[in-house]
Amino acid sequence: MAIIVPHGFTPRGYQKDLYNAPAKGFKRGVAIWHRRAGKDKVFVAMMAKAAMQRKGAYFYILPYYKQARKIIWEGVDSQGSRYLDVIPQELIKKQNNQEMVLELVNGSIIYMLGSDNVDSIVGTNPIGIFFSEFSLHK
User: Which of 110, 111, 116, 102 minimizes the C-alpha distance to 66?
Assistant: First the structure.
């Protein structure tokens, strides 16, 4: 049985161009969508897909560390699905709930972070960074 990443996720019509941009060679992108447009859901799905395609460190950064826990790590969408459920459990080698870190079976590591403690990020070498609520970052 094939494992599909992202699991149980289909981008909405207006999300498709951004979701498919990496496959078309884009390395950077910006989404300016209204509230409840599914930004975090599509970004987590994109990050999961990227992490399985290329081994490395991936950062999901919100303005505050507490927001990363509340919105992404523990977050549930309007249909009752957890944001992190787009990453199939079979692909998670280790999960550190204290530090909000996922190690995947291919060696990629996904970190949930807050830009309120920039010292915790300095000196790292991520190959993928996703910012949420960018206008609120310090």
Answer: 116
